[in-house]
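Obj.: predict assembly geometry.
Materials: sequence records (below).
Method: joint structure prediction, all chains together.
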Amino acid sequence: MLVLGIETSCDETAAAVVSVKDDQSSGEILSNIVLSQLDDHRPYGGVVPEIAARSHLDHMDSIVERALNEANLELTDLDAIAATTGPGLIGGVMVGMMTAKALALAANKPFVSVNHLEGHALTARLSEDVAFPYLLLLVSGGHCQILCVRGVGDYELYGSTIDDAVGEAFDKTAKLLGLEYPGGPNVEKAAASGDPHRFKLPRPMVGRPDCDFSFSGLKTAVRQQIEKLSEDERDAQALADICAGFQLAVGDVFADRCRRAMERFRAECGDGHALVVGGGVAANKALRAVLTDAAAAQNMRFVAPPVKLCTDNGAMIAWAGLERLRRGLTSDLNVAAKPRWPLDSLKID
Amino acid sequence: MTLLLALDSACASCSAAVWQDGEVLAHKFEDMPRGQSENLMPFVAEVMKKSSIDFPDLDVLAVTVGPGAFTGIRICLSAARGLALATKKPLVGVTTMEALLVAQDLSNFQGALVAVVIETKRMDYYIQFFDHNGMSMGEPEALLASSIAKKFETLSQGKQIFLCGDGAERLKQEAIVADCEFEFGSENSQPDAGVFGQVAMDKYNAMGRAAFEIAPAPLYLRPPDATPPKPKFLFKAAGH
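Observations (raw structure tokens):
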């Protein structure tokens, strides 16, 4: 089974071909082309939707062509064409979605509409043999939630952020410090040489009985700490120490929130299942280490897909499309792009 | 015999048509300020089916490239570029100005200055000037009414001004020109694949397949609205 996946929901123009043999559960990536728009957005300190949409259109067809060439395939060889149809920046989503609809119609192949978050949610099953159910921590620039993944299209939301997504908190902290966009990786880099205990930062939501997150207070606390520093004190070490303190605070929040979620998950689903992390923030090595320990403490297997599959890519969309196709879940060409589309609304009858 | 598929969603409508030489085999058009991304491909599927044409039978594809609504331009252009990739057929880009002009009968307006005017939903207008033979007198531009009024005075030299397009009515109210007689085009104020397919067919016949191997680019006429921020708290080491 061969599926082409297209992803354009934020600032990556991506296409990939993924295959699976009938007797296998995990897949094989035949090509995975990702064109990052970082350089286009960097001067603005964040993703500018109109710039993103324009860039997606300029490159989409050639990225698809490259994905097919690298996989040594023609469109006619494929079993379906999948694309992100939301949630995300709608102008960009439309470009990928229309490209996929056109390819599907002209090549007479099924079109599979894929929820971007479902792409992240199922990625672990592409790279490793992970059975349902599992607990998913989905952390990116736009999302921060913990879900019980019972099957394709079957998600129960345990908790989510009540304000900023965690990746957003990283980016905003980076902005306060004058670090270049994208802030997340730059904060992680600076944190490596910092003292995480020099600045006292809060641990929002820790100890609460639910599984929700909040990061706007942490960002405010970072700003207040910066404001206390004189111009002379704002040196490279202070910057590193703030980043380290911020990252440690996020890690402590992750550990506590995931512990709550794992307790609930084990009570509902039993033992022997996995904690899976997905989304761009899963590229952060310090946070991966925190989650590894947190899972071990609950006797849960910890699964983190390779970094290039955690950040936005076409392979995760191709894979989610393939998982849907295997279950006969294809889409009509009149599907609408959705800026908001929570995973727990996907329930298949 | 040349078979052509044309599609559009660049302004406030959605259309698709299959052409055989100078004749429309199947055609669908709807006024549609929203929802084009849902309807465009079903429209294409419908006209292909109605004309009993399969994609490999086509010789050439045609699409509007703007100016118009940014999202609308991207909907039809990404679809058309996807079709071109899948079918390996050439893709002819038609401006919305060309698409609207070809719908007008200029035979009774000898000597008139012709302006195609497209609504921007902002203060300005997308506009392009033509002579009474439909020959362009410049590129499409985004202009305010005051600039357009000045152009009317210099270009029309007291002659009739023929306006068409969905911005024509608003422009007449806002571009105050002394001693100018305005005439309005027919009601076709939206691009229509069942009409502008002819423009693409003519271009294709005149320039040949090789001229359209590279996909056409969008014509936005405006840069994205974005200005770089000024950071407030700069650290000495930041950015290095």
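Conclusions so far: Residues 12 and 36 of chain A are 5 Å apart (CA to CA).
To do: check interface contacts against the pulldown list.
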